[in-house]
Amino acid sequence: MPSFYKILGVPATANQSEIKKSYHRLSLKYHPDKAGPDSTAKFQEVRIGHGIRSTFIDLEQLNAAYEVLSDPAKRQQYDQSKKSKKPHASRRQSNGPYPTPPFEKDEFEVPDSSDEDPNADWEETQKRKRSSGNTGRRRRSSTSNKSSGHKRQTQAEDEYREQRRAQEEHRQKQKTERGQRYNKRKREAEEAEQQREENQQGQKKWSEKEESVPQEDMFEKARRRFMEEESARQLAEKEEMMERRKAKDVEAEERFEAAREAWKAEQDQFEAARKKYEEARKRYDDAIERWSHDQRASGSFWKSHGRETSQ
């Protein structure tokens, strides 16, 4: 019986995740939907030296190996049975019954393909498998393996179809993106080519123009253009300076007018104050004059009155 670890292609220390990944990978690789109706994927060509031999890949062995190794309890029992393989082999050689192991041996019994003839065809290999070993035990193990294998095969088919659908969508998306990138690069290349042609035409026209004009005339035109630009620059500077001066003169004139208006206002105030002062001075003089007149009149009155009383 071949090793289940060898069938799945994993080491004896592999964990459950590695076993599951290897099983799904091999199921998809050797699935009939992928291999075609003739199931040619059940045979893998292996080159040895200058010859080619066919190595049999049996899906029933693959399903049985995964069923045992995916269950920790069955895997432990299987590892223990591998350690006690030699006594079992000696008893099988003597055509004696199997000793009672800690688990049912039928659960792990699968068709052995390790001693097949590399040149044998498919039918002879299948006949030799069916004719070897205990028929009843093989029938029971084959029934259980087929039921569990059919279930896993259905799951593998669904996963395979889903994977194919996702791959097809991914390929279609990549194809669309490649088309878009190609069209974009094509447009950019056309625009670059058009720009290059325009530049070449412009350079050609400029070269023809330079060839048609003598070098001295070009220098004279450049000097004249420089003088015109310099004159225009100086004229612009002068105009700007005149504008600044005019602005300064206008500002100074405005300040002068404001000062003159303020001086006029002060003069008007002074004249008004002077007039008030003159009016007040006049009233004061009039009051002094009346008071003096009253004093004189009063003095003469008393003088005359005093003489009359003395007489």
Automatic annotation (TrEMBL):
Ranges of biased composition (kind: Basic and acidic residues): 72-82, 161-180, 187-250
Q: Recall the taxonomic lineage recorded for the source organism.
A: Eukaryota, Fungi, Dikarya, Ascomycota, Pezizomycotina
From the Swiss-Prot or TrEMBL record, state where the protein is found: Endoplasmic reticulum
Per the database record, which ranges form the J domain? 3-82
Q: Provide a GO CC annotation, any one.
A: endoplasmic reticulum
Record PROSITE patterns: DNAJ_2 (PS50076)
- GO biological-process terms attached to the record: protein folding in endoplasmic reticulum
Q: What is its main location?
A: endoplasmic reticulum
Q: Which Gene3D superfamilies match?
A: DnaJ domain
Q: Which SMART domains match?
A: DnaJ
Its signal peptide is none
Q: Which organism is it from?
A: Phaeomoniella chlamydospora (Phaeoacremonium chlamydosporum)
Q: Which CDD domains match?
A: DnaJ
Where does this protein have compositionally biased stretches of type Acidic residues?
A: 106-123
Residue ranges for the region (Disordered) are: 71-250
Protein's UniProt name = Putative ydj1 protein
